[in-house]
Amino acid sequence: MSPLLLTAATPPPAPEVPSIALLLRALAGLALVVGLVLLTRYLLLRMGPGGSSPTVRLREVARLGPHHVLYVVEVEGRRLLLGSQLTVLAELDPAPPRVPAGFGEALRRAAVRLRRPGEAQP
Questions:
Q1: Does some domain include residue 88?
Q2: What is the domain range of residue 75?
Q3: What does pTM read for this prediction?
Q4: From residue 90, how far is each of 16, 52, 74, 85, 120 by CA, in Å?
Q5: 69 falls within a domain
Q6: Per residue in 79-90, pLDDT tens?
């Protein structure tokens, strides 16, 4: 066989890419994927479970079983208890305003709940 035929049949060698360039491309791809995941999480948390409606807000969800769910929904200041078929079960009283308690107050209430019935209370 002639040497001319052997050289023409072999493919040209692939250009060598430095390993640092491959590492940088992999890290850039990873950063892009992580960024997209964080952006999706932010948007989902911002939109909330029921969207971003100012008049209708989902306050609580209680799962009673695989096909039974209770929802507490606030509509224009009224709280409604809805069943899994989205039928109104009851109109609830307005929710009391939530006042964040300090750490000491929360600790005191937890200690009172954990006390045994026979112990003296201060």
A1: yes
A2: 53-92
A3: 0.35
A4: 72, 24, 12, 14, 41
A5: yes
A6: 888 887 767 677
